[in-house]
Amino acid sequence: MPASSTAAPPNHRAGALFPPNLNAVINAQRDGSRRAPAPPNRDVIAKTKAKIFQDPRHYQIAVLSLLLAFGVALRAFDIAPVQIAATIAAALFAQFLGAVMTASRFDPRSALITALSLSLLLRADAIAPLVIAALIGVGSKYMLRFDHKHVFNPANAGIVALLLLSEGLLPDAAWTTPGQWGTALWFAMLLAGAGMFVTYRAARIDVPLIFLGVLAALTFLRAIWLGDPLAIPLLRLQNGALILFAFFMISDPKTTPDGTGARAIFAASAAVIAYILTYHFYIADGLFYALAIVCIMRPVLERLDPAPRYQWGDPVRTPSFLPFAAQSPKGSPPLPAE
Question: How many CB atoms lie within 10 A of CB 122?
């Protein structure tokens, strides 16, 4: 027999019964029961975690939902479940309609935040006023825009619109709820703690701190000037509606300036205007009107202090003037814009 007929194939050991590739298949099948299953795609898991944990809207939705459920369960909030459901449905419908009209992606998260905020801060005897507020609030994102950004905070726009309508076309149709929150210090601190976490994740923790700091200073100075006990301004600052407004409404990343200096002016101006409206013009809902006014001023502030536009999921960047300021390392890229 010729020598070539007995020679082993290339890369084939002389003692092996089969070529190397076949030996590998047989060994893999033989040892399969002893081997751990292949891990899932790590890139998919990382992207999923980024979408969930990187977007501060998820934290805000969780906090607002828990707060609303807590209030309804204890019957502390004068709002019916059917009113909450109608408000959410109206907000989602307005968001869907706006997405269709602008050929953009439908994202329910912002509309859900608007509906939850309205359910917490606005009251009405009927369902219709809350539905109108949701439609106006979410619709304002698409109808009232400047430089590719919506001008007003959606929930605040809905509240202000209903308050104005209640003074004219729809008398006493809706009102706000500062009294339902009480002045318990523990509740204010708990709400503020949750709000600080959410605003830190949204890179806007400076806004509520400056707003509350300026408003507290003005309120205490007024009490000192009038000779009132300091317990009076302290109780006013412990109101849950004020804390909710500061940490979950005025700090909205999409309706606050992107520049650090402009945000400081924005928050301080809102506090000054709210103080003047509340204590000099005796407008009980001065907070909401103040935010609407400074939102109109925001484009001017942004021109004076230009900065990169915020996108949901941007890395947290704490302003340098805060004592715990730190620059987060660059991680996942920002999530797509709404």
Answer: 25
Q: Comparing 139 with 7, which gets the higher pLDDT?
A: 139
**What's the pLDDT tens digit per position in 318-336?**
555 454 444 444 444 444 4
Residue 181 identity (one-letter amino acid) = W
Q: Cβ contacts of residue 224 below 8 Å, gap of 6+?
A: 230
Q: pLDDT, tens digit, for every residue of 41-78?
A: 666 665 666 666 678 899 999 999 999 998 888 777 88
C-alpha to C-alpha distance for 316 and 303, rounded to whole angstroms: 23
List the beta strands (DSSP E) in 206-309.
none
pLDDT at 329: 40
Amino acid at 135: L
**The model's pTM:** 0.79
Written as six digits, the tokens of 123 are 């009251």
For residue 74, the tally of other CB atoms under 10 A from its CB is: 8
Helical ranges in 184-285 per DSSP H: 185-201, 206-226, 231-237, 240-248, 260-279
3-state SS assignment for residue 276: helix
- Helix, strand, coil percentages for the chain (3-state, nearest 5): 60, 5, 35
| DSSP type of residue 203 | T
- Residue 168 pLDDT > 90, yes or no? no
Distance CA 315, CA 203 (A): 8
Mean pLDDT (whole number) for 193-200: 91
Closest CA to 178 of 133, 118, 122, 113: 122
Angle at CA of residue 313, ends 311 and 317, nearest 5°: 85
Nearest CA to 270 out of 257, 122, 60 is that of 257
What the block records as the tokens of 22 is 């076949």
State the distance between the two ends of the chain, measured CA to CA, in whole angstroms: 77
